[in-house]
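Follow-up to my post from last week.
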Amino acid sequence: MAQKSVWSDNRFWRRSATWVTGVASVLLIWLTFDTMGQISMGTDADLKNGVTKRVPAPTVINYKVDYVFDSRRGHEVPKIGPEKEKFFGKFWSEEEAAALLHKGKLASQAKNCMDCHTLLGNGAYFAPDLTKAWLDPAWQDGGTMQAMTGKNSKEEAMVAFLMNPDQYPTHERMMPNLGITHDEAVALVAFLKHMASIDTNGFPRNFGRMQGAVHGK
Amino acid sequence: MFEPFVDVNPSFFGWLNQGPLTLTIFLHTLVVLPMIFIYYQEKKRLENEK
Amino acid sequence: MANNALTGVGSESKQLATWYFTFAAIIFGAQLVFGVVAAIQFVEPSFLYGVLDFSIARILHINALVVWMVFAMFGSVYWLLPDETGIETVGIKIGKLLFWIFAAAIVVVVLVYLFIQVGPADDTTIWFITEGREYIEAPRWADLGIVVVALGFVANLFFTGMKGNRSGIVTVLMADMIAFSGLYLCGMFFTDNISMDQYWWWWVIHLWVEATWEVFVGSLAAYALITIIGAHRKVVEMWLWIEVAMLFGSGILGLGHHYFWIGTPEYWWEIGALFSALEPLPLVAMFIHVLYDWGKTQGEQMGAEHTDEDHVKSVITNKPAFTWITLNAFGNFLGAGIWGFFHTLPQVNLYTHGTQFTAAHGHLAFFGAYATILIGMMYLAIQGTNGIKVMNHTKASIWGVSLITSGVVGMTVALTIAGYSQVLVARAQMGGTWQAYFDGQAGMWFQQAMDWRLVMGVVTLLGFVFLAKDLLTSGKSPVHER
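User reply:
Got it. Predicted complex:
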């Protein structure tokens, strides 16, 4: 009788399965430790000293945030500062900013934002992606959304919209009124500004730059 | 031979990521290659059993 | 071995399994109803606006999906344990108690979703109303309950496996279920850092559906092949180990394809791209496995009976179950494998991430990989509890499987087309702003696709009605051999 092949031997496959699973798990845990270090939130000192972090400190709301092409990395990256900018008319201390972001993140979950919108591209596809919503041209001075709310700053316009989205229909598909209070709306705007400052490896690409090419604005 | 590092933070895995495929080949090697060792061990066992 | 499902009469474990299957089927129906509501809202946004908004319909749609599958998975384990271990499940009383706790908790969670919907931005909302994280929105009290229930279930599986005959299938299930339960813990904490949040959130979602659940399906397919067509255990278990090696080998680090754009380092591009590119391979293997074993046992049958192809008796002892399991082999490969590979490379995913492409993949993959085989297990349970020797198709079972399958495939095609429009217009051309999003949604391709998605969703729901009727009545039908 012919020699039994190792390829049809259950023990060989069982041992291989165990090895492969074990090593893949160990590698994933190792990679996770590495990634944790890189995506933990930066500090206020990092921002002051111009140290780039993938996820900056909550006090990033005190800085001007932009999204510009980096030719070395080959895609757009967030540009934080060095210019400072007031957020709701003031600069926020470390504690205030942290508390605000905490509330904003809680609000984003308590209102189920992710079940219509996408955050960092994850969520539902019923409403626009919010990853870089803070930088969206529609909310800037002269933008359609800011004009519709009649406010004269991006933050105030976003708050007005979040509190009464059904009063500012932009599309047949309207955001419902979720009972968002003024404080929650302010916190949500901070959450959005913070999210826009996260380095997402160039997602979304060409954000807000392409406005209809030749015939565009 | 070594590419300049472009990601935000330097790290071991970032350094291994030297261009197309280097990192993934490294990881796949760790995951798959030892199966050769298991193969020969099992082959020997089957021969001994005979 | 071929008839071991017949031991269903009198086994308490199998009785408990039928409870799980019954509850799962009800929740499955709820999933489809809320799915249709959400589909209508894409076409006619004013539908139930302010009453049952899209976000709530969708939460119910996807949570019902997860819950019915987990129930059917628990049921499947309780069903196959006595056959595989040769003994009654240890701690069956606790199993029954946990069933009622689990079911009651689900009902409360659903009522809260339906009638309270959202809460203020503080910890009470996270504890009692919603955690607001896609797929695992269940509030924290329910999380803790689920952990208790899962621990009880895993303990039952372990003690039964250790006391009885521990087959290869049971060994795989034991390892798999402990990972499945443990991973849920990664989705329970709160952090202000959205990148960190999503990093761990994917540990639950990805490592469930692209690793532990897939291995679970491999085990079920192995059990089903032994039970339905009398495939050889040794061959089946060899395939199972190969599948485990390939699924975990590609799936665990394939997690990287969710880490392209959430703030995580660039090296994930390469890890995610190439490991997840291999993820379809085990699915091909599973597909080949099912068809190969079928041909093999059928061929042996012909050899044994010394007869030609036209007169030989089919080796399939449960036609509806086998239909669903063959669909599983095909649907898993097509939905999870092909549709997943479509957008798994970062250069493609940059533009498809967060579009209807993902929804298309999600629909076909969840259906193909999980719904099919779990429905197949329900049919095995009907056969077992009714003492049926050869279970045949009824009219309702054929209508059910045909309508559900065409409905889901139809939705998938429609969503894929909607995805094209979204990717090309909103993303590639206009860069993904608020305006870009709505310009993409206004495209004719998108809008027509959404109409078709709704039509196909209704077809699926109609198919479910036939399926439900069949699940309820087929046991007594005269078409079966007893």
